[in-house]
Design brief:
By secondary structure, the chain is an alpha/beta fold. Helices cover 52% and strands 19% of the residues. The N and C termini lie far apart (137 Å).
Length: 721
């Protein structure tokens, strides 16, 4: 094994020395925390190993280098007692054998190793003691410095608090848990109109507003009892002069050693903001024109009444609308109309002022009166009559004296059985009833009538979708020759296959379709479907030459495109024009002029037959009728019903028979075909035949039926069922 001479003149074995240092490093790392990496620890202990080897061979010998090694270990934070124990043991047991060459070991090696062990331990102990003393000194210095800093911070904090307390723009007050005011700043004193000295003699309870005193003292007691650490409220206070100041108050509890000691109140004057909020709220909840409560406030009040009503308590509303107000606006101007509304609003408020009922303007010329707590219907009825009387009194607006009337819808029911929206919906419906019945009157809500209106509205709403979904079907009623008994034509009658109500007749929805304008789309569908069915019959039974008769509503006849629509339906279906008959009511035909009259002539030019339905029910201008391109008159059902010959009224029966005879003669004189509707009995059919009526239609000849029933009848030769 090779050896070398180190710079100090001592021969050491390189590999063994490095191995010894590595074992030393691993031992100290295993036995305690070492802040150095393994490589750093090995380098440090290699240096110390060489220093110890040099100390063993030094002449004269001294153990002082071992003391430096012990101090170096402490300075490197290798201070674990077990690590020191391993170091001393290894120094005595293996150091000389592993680190020194055989020829370089002194004769007194054992004594020298022992001295080095003692020196290393002594140096380690002294260094550890010195470090402990140094740390204690630093801790003591830090403690004194911290105390000085705390005292300085406290003085600065007190100075800052005093500066903030004195110069703050918001009021700050400090009180004991008994409510006695300890100190306040100038802003607090100015806000309440006292001096600081006066407030120091006052208990906070003396400043509470009378309306808030009980609640505020309870809140203050909960605070000082420690139930809350802070509270914030908008609070009124009395000023020294008796006036009221609104404040935004924040109160905090100050504890000392866990016990409540003081309360700190910070108070900001928000009187102007509060007054602005009140003005804005008033504007938001009142009508700007009349000053009455508006729709929002009315519904808030109604909702509160319904929510807090006692069992069995009734609530009612009178929904009022001026009659003909639009005409006043249009003729006299909106400025005068607004002045009229102001006067009407004042009258309504005055007429119920003694009873405390709420009067609100809902918008436009609509007002509503909330009748709270009435026991029967007479109460809201009396209110409505008083309101109508107040409105009906002559109104002088500028140079005009106006006579105004109103209509009122009345609803009253137990508060527990309704909601605000349901109540107002019923009131609106009832107002519509009152207006429909005439001016200057009231109507009381009828649940059964309301249910019918709801059902009617549901049908109106469902009509467009039903047409899109194909829920409508056609039934056909035979029109039979009174002379031969054969079926010459059929009338197309629309039915609605409602998914919930079943098959609905036209009497329930045709009027609704006319009101909504859907009759144009529905009528076109009926026309095209009837032409398609008639084309199939013509193709299968060409000898029957069955005519299909389709009702044409007045609104359809007025459509500029009606001729094009009919022509397209014929072209699309392939039905010959002479097999299509269009029926118009007498009033629609007699009122035709201008473009509608030209449309009738253009339809006749297509080859289509035209018929006047329900003839005899309206005023007929016979000279005008003669100029129209009409082919057939359909006698109204009431005339035919009058010739039943059942013996109930013989005189009336003869009168109706003479009327029918005259109408038939008139139609034949105009070279028109005559069809009698509502033929129910064989006697009627015989008497109509005797009067030379051409064709008949009614349940005697067959009720309206689906197209396949007509097909079966044609296969049977077209005879009556």
């Amino acid at each position: 094994m090779g050896a070398r001479r180190n710079p100090g003149g001592v021969d050491v074995r390189r590999a063994e020395t490095q191995g010894y240092a590595a074992d030393w490093a691993r031992a100290v790392r295993r036995l305690g925390f070492v802040p150095l990496s393994l490589a750093e620890t090995e380098r440090l202990l290699l240096v110390q190993t060489i220093r110890l080897a040099q100390a063993v061979r030094a002449e004269p010998f001294s153990a002082r280098p071992a003391e430096e090694v012990g101090r170096a270990l402490v300075e490197a934070h290798l201070t674990e007692p077990q690590a020191l124990e391993w170091t001393l043991h290894a120094l005595g047991a293996t150091f000389g054998r592993r680190v020194l060459c055989d020829g370089d070991r002194p004769a007194d090696l054992a004594d020298r190793i022992a001295a080095l062990q003692g020196g290393l331990a002594a140096g380690f102990a002294r260094a550890l003691r010195d470090r402990t003393f140094s740390q204690q000194e630093r801790i003591a210095r830090s403690a004194w410095q911290a105390r000085d800093e705390v005292e300085q911070a406290l003085r600065e904090s007190e100075a800052r608090f005093r500066a903030v307390f004195t110069g703050a723009a918001i009021g700050i007050g400090i009180a004991g848990v008994d409510g006695r005011i300890i100190d306040v700043n100038q802003a607090f004193a100015d806000m309440l109109g006292y001096s600081i000295e006066e407030l120091r003699e006052i208990n906070v309870a003396a400043l509470f507003h009378a309306d808030d005193a009980a609640g505020m003292w309870e809140l203050y007691q909960e605070l000082v009892e420690g139930k809350h650490d802070a509270a914030r409220v908008e609070k009124r206070y009395y000023r020294k002069d008796g006036s009221v100041v609104w404040t935004d108050l924040a109160v905090s509890l100050i504890r000392h050693e866990g016990r409540p000691r003081f309360t700190v109140a910070m108070m900001e004057d928000i009187t102007e903001r509060y007054q602005l909020q009140q003005r804005l709220r008033f504007q938001a909840l009142h009508d700007p024109l009349t000053g009455l409560p508006n729709r929002t406030l009315f519904f808030e009040t109604l909702g509160r009444v319904l929510d807090t009503a006692d069992v069995g308590q009734r609530v009612g509303v009178c929904f009022l609308d001026l009659d003909g107000f639009k005409a006043i606006n249009d003729s006299l101007g909106h400025d005068l109309g607004d002045r009229l509304l102001v006067m009407i609003g004042r009258r309504l408020a005055a007429c119920v002022a003694d009873h405390g009922h709420l009067v609100a303007r809902m918008g436009g010329d609509e007002f509503v009166i909330l009748v709270d707590g009435g026991d029967d219907t007479d109460d809201p009825v009396a209110v409505a009559e008083a309101a109508l009387a107040a409105v009906a009194a002559p109104v002088h607006v500028g140079e005009h004296q106006l006579a105004v009337s109103a209509s009122v819808g009345i609803v009253q029911c137990p508060a527990s059985e309704t909601t605000a929206s349901e109540l107002m919906k019923a009131a609106d419906t009832t107002l519509y009833w009152a207006k429909a019945a005439g001016r200057g009157r009231w109507a009381v809500y009828d649940p059964e009538r309301g249910a019918r209106d709801i059902a009617r509205s549901a049908l109106v709403a469902g009509l467009p979708a039903a047409l899109d979904r194909g829920e409508f079907v056609l039934h056909y009623q035979p029109i039979v020759s009174l002379l031969e008994g054969t079926m010459l034509a059929v009338e197309a009658l629309v039915r609605w296959e409602h998914p919930e109500l079943g098959l609905i007749g036209p009497d329930r929805f045709i009027g609704l379709a006319e009101e909504t304008g859907l009759i144009v789309r529905l009528g076109e569908w009926v026309l095209r479907q009837a032409c398609a069915d008639a084309e199939r019959w013509w193709r299968e039974f060409p000898h029957a030459k069955l005519v299909v008769s389709v009702n044409l509503a007045a609104r359809q006849a007025d459509e500029p495109a009606i001729v094009d629509t009919v022509a397209d339906a014929l072209r699309t279906s392939g039905l010959p024009a002479e097999l299509l008959q269009l029926e118009l009511t007498e009033s629609a035909v007699m009122g035709s002029a201008g473009e509608p009259l030209r449309s009738l002539h253009r339809l006749a030019a297509l080859g289509v037959r035209l018929a006047v339905d329900d003839f005899g029910t309206g005023y007929s201008n016979l000279a005008y009728l003669r100029r129209l391109p009409i082919h057939c008159l359909k006698l109204a059902g009431p005339f035919v019903e009058g010739i039943r010959a059942d013996g109930t009224d013989v005189a009336a029966d003869h009168r109706d028979e003479r009327i029918v005879d005259a109408l038939v003669r008139l139609a034949h004189a105009l070279e028109l075909w005559v069809t009698a509707e509502a033929v129910e009995t064989g006697v009627q059919a015989e008497r109509l035949r005797a009067l030379r009526c051409d064709t008949g239609q009614g349940r005697y000849f067959g009720a309206p039926a689906p197209a396949d029933v007509i097909t079966a009848r044609l296969r049977g030769g077209g005879v009556p069922a």
